[in-house]
Amino acid sequence: MTERKDRLGKILFVKKAEKDIASSEYQDAISQFESEGQELYTLLKKKEQLETTLHGRLQTGIPIDILKQQQYFIGNLEKNVRNQQRKVSHARALMNLKEEKLKEHSIECKKYEVLDDKQKVLWKQNESRIETSFIDELSILQYTHHTNR
């Protein structure tokens, strides 16, 4: 019985370790997603500022060379934004995958915790039954010893 209990405890230990690893990976994925999202936000903010500046300068007049240069910068920023959007999408997908993995490990760990709790209850009941049996035997022996006097 104790051997089974020890085995279950070892399995539970391994499952908790797997859950902890999955949790760490999920936290890393969240950090990566936040980092990529912040980078995308920065690029979009730059693009917005550049377009606002360009729009203001168009109202007052702007040389063609500068207009071409500004359009080139905006084009590059749009390309960078699209690239960053792909990175954010990839990071989001990875984060969701890690979240699912964490949920699976949490459920698995919980199953083994419930099994371990049930095993402990059964073990205590068995110990109690053995102790009661032992006390009964002692009482019988004591009674028989007392009646033989």
Can you offer a commentary on this structure?
The protein is mainly alpha-helical and 149 residues long. It has one domain: Orthogonal Bundle (Helix Hairpins). It has 2 helices and no strands. It has helices spanning 2-60, 64-147. Helix 1 (2-60) packs antiparallel against helix 2. It is rod-shaped, with a radius of gyration of 34 Å.
Topology:
Blueprint (H helix, E strand, L loop, with lengths): L1 H59 L3 H84 L2
Helix pairs in contact: 1-2
Q: What is the count of β-strands?
A: 0
Q: Any guess at the CATH architecture?
A: Orthogonal Bundle
The assigned structural class equals mainly alpha
The span between the termini is 41 Å
Q: What is the CATH topology? A: Helix Hairpins
Share of residues in strands: under 5%
Report the total helices. Answer: 2
- Summarize the helix and strand pattern as letters: HH
Low-confidence segments, given as residue ranges, are none
Helix content: over 70%
Molecular shape: rod-shaped
Rg from C-alpha positions?
Answer: 34 Å
Name of the CATH first level: Mainly Alpha
- Count of folded domains: 1
Give a brief outline of the structure.
With 149 residues, the protein is mainly α.
List its traits.
single chain; 149 residues; mainly alpha; Helix Hairpins
